[in-house]
Structure formats: structure tokens, C-alpha cells
């Protein structure tokens, strides 16, 4: 404790002498000018500190672990460079803003000798911290994405776990109360919510983020790396694969990450299942962008509104996700086949725009994104088991792990079937063996009704037997717990069969009521 006080006093005296030498009237030291026991003052200081540093005439960095015996010149750099690189100052969370915010940052040894400043040492500082030179030279920080700015603090440490989040507030132009004791995870969640709130980029992502997302890490990394990579025009990417392989979930994760990592990027989700759903999605985009005419029902008007949307999106950075591009056309005719070329006419043409398509058709994928196709197959047995474990409400016992291997094989390692199974097991508290037994019964009735179940699926594109069986079993469990809930599902299926297959409900009901598959 005495040594810490001695070091603090030495730092205080150095700062006083240097400020006087530079003819400054006041100086401020964070460690002794903030009442850490006053929560309001501490929180206010944390939210103001970046601006204080930015407005400072000079910022002194006193490196107590860097020693220089004589006044430093360029020829003597070897005397201090090794200890300078290894200084603990570069590992602390709070010193990040001390380095970036001020126009003038000067470095001094423990003897009070000047080593250099942020300008003369910029290359060395860049090497040590991996912070871009432009940021060290005080360019506008909004030139860097949110994720990149957050990465600058990745290898830094703080005494209080929450401070590794709070030290980013100024860098991200975010203000929020400091709540010590909430933990790093809670602080990070609040920060991300604030980032979303201050964003000027309008977005529509109709589905929440899947916290159990697993199994497509290589494809996710490839998609993120390719976003906005086309330097001549719009970057187009296609995720292709059979139904149930997780195309939409992968696109959803990319969408949420893009929104999280770059608050200036608008993200819009377009339901491209049918021509009407596509226009309805564009109407929502138009409403979000305050484009007049978004509530018109006339087809010609909607085409014009869509073109206005495209023109508006062309002027901003944006990511569009066209989900389920399997059976649509933007032509005025009634063709039931996909016209991918006409769809491309409704995309913003700009290097600042990226578009992701999800489709079951390799032909469509090649037409829309010939250079950037991500093909999804069924999961490996190991990844499927990991997905199941992540989706269940409680851990698997050793016996259940063995049983789950057989169940996953029955589910053909399809992600959507695995998620359905996990949700049903967790809600019903069935054992793995009980679920497998029930699934066999529902597989048989799904097989009998298979033609009807696929009647509303465009081009028979992919409600595979395991997926239909897990859905049927889930519906049966819902009816067992709450029959009225199934009535509501029937009503929803009658209103819009795209989301809920009416025949699937009927098939499941017949089985749960004891009817035989051939009893129509």
C-alpha cells in the first residue's frame, strides 16, 4: 500500500512540474480527481472522461515501468523501446481512451524524461496496440465499425470486470449509467442495446437472435468476410441447401451481427416466399424509410414504391436478406416460376450494399450470386449432438447421450428437426426414449399424408419426413396440454398456410384422436 501511495505521489508531482513547465493553469489525474465511493460522480465521470481527454490541451502518460537514464534521442531508442513495448500501460482498459481521444499525448519515463508523443511514435504504437494509424492520428472514429472499435479493447484488463465495457463508452459515442456489481455480461448487453438505440440506420429484422446458434461457424465466417467485398457493385451472396438445413438461421445470425458490429448499416429482412410477401416486405421498408405510398394496395403503385426503396437504399450502407427465394417473380404476369433476372432489377446497385439470398435451388443461387454460393448440407453427428445439447433445458445424462445419437440419426441431422425435438422434450419433460417412441408413431402418419403435406410447398422444395414428424409430435403435445391453442393454430393455418400447414395439423389431430392414417 505504501509503495502504491509512493508511486501515486511521484506521478502527482511529475504532473504538477510538467504542467507548470508547459505553462498550463490546471491539471487533472483520473485516479485522484474522482470520488470512487460516490456512485453518481463516478458514473458521470465515466461518461464524460473521453470528452475530457479529447478537449485536453495536453495528455501526459507517466510510465512507471519504463526507465531512461538520460534525455532520449532517436539514436538511443534501443535503450527504452523494449520496456516501452512491455509497459503495463498498454494492457489496461482505461488507457485506451487516453491514447485515442487527445490530440496531444506525450510519453514520459519514470524519471520524468520525455520519450516521444503520439505523432512521433505512431508506427510503434500501431505495432504494440494494433490500432489503425488513422485512429491514432485522430480521424473521425465513425470511419471504423463498432466491432472494430470494440476489438481494440479485447486484450486489455481492468480491475472491475464491468470497466472493460465502460471504458468503451466514449469510443462508441454511447452514454449509459455505470452500475458496478452487474457483471461484465450484463454491462455488455446494456451497451449493445444502447448502440442499437443511437444508430441512425433504420432496420427491420423480424426474428430475434438465436442464442443457441451453433454448427455453421465456418460458413458464418465466410459470409461475414465477403460482405461488401465487391468493389464495383453490389455484393450478392447465396445460401443454398435442402429444407431444414438452417439457411434462414445462418442468414439471421449474419443480419444480427451486421447490425451489432456496424450501427450505420441498415439491415432489412425481405420475405421472398411469394410475390405478395416480397411486396409486403418492401412496403414495410418504405414505411421505415418514410417513403410515401407504402400502404397502397395497387400492384403498379407497389412496384413504384419498391423502386423508391431501391433508390433510397442505394445511398446508404445496407444489408438485405431475401429469405426463401424459391417461387417468386416480380413481373406483372402470373408466372409461377422464378425469374431471378427480374428479381435482380429490384436490388440497390452500390458497393455499399450487400444482399444475401436463401434458397433451396442451386440454379437460382447460381443466377443470383454466381461467385458467392454457400452450400449447406446436413450437420455432422458431432455438431448435431452439440446443437441438441445447447437447445435442451437441462444437460443430457450419459444414458441419454447414447440414446440421442440414435435419435439424431433418425432426424437426419437436420437443424430444424433437432431444434423442434429439443423444444418438445424440454416442454413436455419426456425422456429421450419416450420422445423417440412417439416420433416413430408420427413418422408413420406423416408418411401416409405426405402428398397432402407437401401440396402447399413450392416445387416440393423440402418438408422432409423428420421435420414434418417433429412438427406433428409437437402439435400433438400442444393439444394434450391446451386444446384451445391448437384451435388457434388451425385458425392461423386457414388465414395463412405459408407458415402453418393445415394438412399437418389435421394429420396430427387424427393421430392424437386415435384415427388410423387411412381414415379421411
Can you describe what's shown?
With 520 residues, this protein is α/β, with parallel strands linked by helices. It folds into three domains: 2-157, no CATH class; 217-375, Rossmann fold, CATH 3.40.50; 381-512, no CATH class. It is built from 24 helices and eight strands. The protein has a five-stranded parallel beta sheet, with helices on both faces. A three-stranded mixed beta sheet has the order 1-2-3, with helices on one face. Helix 17 packs across helix 18 (398-410). The longest helix is centred in the N-terminal third of the chain and has 20 residues, at 2-21.
Q: What's the gyration radius in Å?
A: 30 Å
Number of strands: 8
Which structural class best describes the helix and strand composition? alpha/beta
Shape: elongated
Protein traits:
elongated; P-loop_NTPase; Rossmann fold; ADP binding; single chain; NB-ARC; three-stranded mixed β-sheet; alpha/beta; HET
